Amino acid sequence: MTALELRAQPIPWTDDQLLLELVNDDAVVYGLLDPVTGLVGHVCTRVIVDELWILNVAVDPAERRRGVATKLLERARARASERRCTSLWLEVRASNDGARALYTRLGFTERGQRPGYYPPIPPATERETAILMASEDRRGT
Questions:
Q1: Predicted local confidence at residue 34, as pLDDT
Q2: 118 is known as an active-site residue
Q3: CB 78 within 8 A of CB 100
Q4: CA atoms within a 13 Å half-sphere pointing along the CA-CB vector of 131
Q5: For residue 58, how many C-alpha atoms fall within 13 Å in the half-sphere facing its CB?
Q6: pLDDT in tens, 9-41
Q7: pLDDT tens track for 92-120
Q8: What Cα–Cα distance (Å) separates residue 9 from each residue in 14, 48, 57, 62, 72?
Q9: Which of the residues 5, 103, 118, 128 is marked catalytic?
Q10: Fewer CB atoms inside 10 Å of the end CB: C or N, the chain?
Q11: Which of 21, 51, 91, 136 is labelled catalytic?
């Protein structure tokens, strides 16, 4: 997964970070494989009480705008339903217009902000605000 993270993220998760998350009983990582190129995307999820948190979404830049993130997020939503979660939550960089538009199309709405949450992406030096977004999942109740 590290190779995908390095291609997909401005500040990628390490294998250690991914493995550390997976030691939690309610954490699951779903991947999407292409039979030729291999792993083209993954989504890291964790159930906390009755909420499903989407902790990380990574899509190979060569595969963007081909439905990979949508499929991964649909699988996360299915997990929320399976686990009877009432909502899905995620954080996204304020500057990540493409991801924010996708999340909005998939029914997520802005619920708040976390100023200074993300480390700066060089050459920037200022920490960046996270936008907190959620989607209700009535199927889980």
A1: 92
A2: no
A3: no
A4: 16
A5: 26
A6: 988 888 888 888 888 889 999 999 999 989 999
A7: 999 999 999 999 999 999 999 999 999 99
A8: 11, 25, 9, 13, 16
A9: 103
A10: C
A11: 91
